[in-house]
Amino acid sequence: MIKTLVSSLSILLTSFWLSSAASAQGFFPDGACTIVVASRQSLPEARALIITNQWSDDARVFESRNGWFAITTTVVDVSSAPAVLASGKQAGIFPEDAYCSTGQMYLRQIEWRENSQHATSQSSRLWNEFDARPFSLVEKRFLQAALALEGHYTGLIDGAWGRGSQSAIERFTRQKFDRVPLNADAAYLVMTTIDTFIADGWEAKNINYLALSVMMPMKKMRLVEREGLLEKWEHTGQDMTLMFTDLTDPELLDLHSNLWGAEGLVGEPYTVRQSNRWVTAVDFLDGSGYIRSDLIGGTWSTVALFGSNASRQEFGLITSSIVVGSPVAMLPETDGLLLAYTTDLISFLAEDDHSPQSIDRADRVATPDLNRRESPSEAQGRTSGTGFFVNSDGEMLTNAHVIEGCSDITVDGKPADIIAVSRAFDLAAVKPRISQEVAHLPFAAREIGLNADITIAGYPLHGLLGGLNVSRGSISAMKGLRGDETSFQMSAPVQPGNSGGPVVDRSGNVVGVVVSKLDVMEVASVTGDIAQNVNFAVRGSMAKIFMQTNGIQYEERVSNEEVRPEEAAKKLEATTRLIECLPY
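The structure assignment produced for this chain is given below.
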């Protein structure tokens, strides 16, 4: 079931995150190239730059395969391009980093003069107040499941959107965003829930001999006992036990009475006593207990669940998902409104310039290579960033802006290939052309918390500073600038060249990817004060969605044991690499 949704979402997400392959033939005549004066991550950025620099008469904009937008002007013969560039730069017509491109990496020409009203109207429904009525029964079941996993919904996952369901999404958005629910929140729930479903292996387990079905995080559960009609499962990372059994009438009475009368209860037990269903739910100071029994074929098919407070979210989804018979459809239809909202949100993130001017990317910095002979023009054009291995096959993560506009990239001097790019999350996957297995970093199974200690690694100011640079800090805020949900703020120092480096927790597990820093001079011009240690990273959950969508394998670990700082540095040194780029 999960695989079906993953496949459907992969198709939808890929359509926005990755450009489909297309031929560049026909943009320019054979033997010709076009002068590229700038590249920008979004069309609004490109449009603003064209107007500011008064390039409107000659400007053409092309979307590149890496998702960026190239701003071009004159088309010239390849043979005369060096002379044209030199004279244009000397006259101040072209910027110093202008170059001539044959367009082999371009997908299509964009009409940049077109106003953006269509794009705005396409995403405007996202910002309308949430209304569940247009959703199908299956879509409402999925939202109930997502809210149960968030810890806000405790009813049955039946698709009946009543007061309980509406209150759950209101609690979720009030806690998460401090506002009323919007349609965008439903799309956000799709993205985050799928990430968790895949990571934990959630699936509907059919307990055939009891004629019941229940959602379980199968990657985190292990069968510890099976005797007769009794099955006992335990969670590998939390104090949680799940049992299935079949009861007679006297056994039913004993089991529910024992839980109802247990010592140390907090508050009144919740009970249902019907002719065909009994439910008893209780809370303790350190956890909860839940028993549900359904009369099927003359005996009582029973599910019993006991868990600590730390397992409350998984506890909620399991108890809410129990149904008599085979599993019910819960995954949003591929042509339904809920996934349409999700693609709208992804499109908005990809196309809108929602990054304020006060963000200064931890950008690729020009890096003269003192150990290699090269022409002056090549030395001036070389740029660098950071990447890290995510699996033993040698696939790496970095930022999309690190490899933007590169004709060739290298990893520690070895040629490498670009596997995938997401402009929405500013992430890219690359792979050096090596055959041996490599050491890699696992990802944390859960999001990191506020004020948690972190360590980052990278190659800042390569050519000026020597080798890998490792720094420590903490999580300053759970959101990025202006409430950006795809990133978090950290205090670890970031410099140009850190982009794409790993952010690890105290167990050495990846919780983010370094992406940007605050432009302190821009902020100072507004506030009159110098901001310090305000830097940002893409959330680890967003990186996992990116990798899942693109078929990139990665490892997950629960962050339990703390590693010494020196040991963490050794692991980062073994897995973090310098990425260099030669622009077109």
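Interim note for the steering committee: Residues 62 and 109 are 4 Å apart (CA to CA). The chain has 14 helices and 31 strands.
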